[in-house]
Specification:
Layout lengths: L1 E4 L18 H15 L6 E2 L1 H17 L12 H7 L6 E8 L3 H9 L2 H7 L6 E7 L8 E8 L1
Parallel strand pairs: 2-4
Antiparallel strand pairs: 1-3, 3-5, 4-5
Helix pairs in contact: 2-3
């Protein structure tokens, strides 16, 4: 699922302020930026505010076994991003039912609409959330993209 509201690429993504290698956020950042570089878009920079918005939504989706943009409390992606303190010109959110980063990225990249969002050159920041599924359900990955 995806929603969207309204320099040349470098080679090495930054993970400043993120946890050690092997962390799902570092893996997702590397995977998404690899695809963006090869698609001609600039690298995305991690943002803790977008992480907070993405993590909040991933936990909510997994807890309620949902796969949707709106939260169980009626929150929208834009409300969550603003509540996390990220003032944006454009923002988008992608959700995937998956148990691994490669699986989530594959789902997004094989969907033309999601692929377009991942490669959208307007975005320059991202946040990533993940929550494991319950009772055998797949986990929920959330990728929140923003431009300030």
């Amino acid at each position: 699922m995806t929603t969207l509201e309204q320099g040349g690429p470098a080679v090495t993504p930054t993970t400043a302020g993120w946890t050690a290698v092997g962390d799902f956020r570092t893996e997702m950042l590397t995977s998404v930026n690899f695809r963006r570089v090869h698609g001609g878009a600039r690298l995305l920079n991690p943002d803790e505010r977008l992480n907070a918005a993405a993590q909040r939504h991933a936990a909510d989706l997994a807890a309620h076994d949902l796969l949707q943009q709106d939260g169980s409390d009626g929150s929208t992606p834009w409300r969550r991003v603003r509540a996390a303190g990220f003032a944006f010109r454009f923002a988008a959110e992608l959700v995937a039912p998956a148990d691994s980063v490669p699986q989530a990225v594959q789902l997004w990249m094989t969907s033309p609409r999601h692929r377009e969002t991942v490669l959208d050159p307007r975005f320059n920041h991202l946040g990533i959330g993940f929550a494991p599924g319950r009772g055998g359900a797949p986990g929920r990955y959330v990728l929140t993209l923003g431009q300030v």
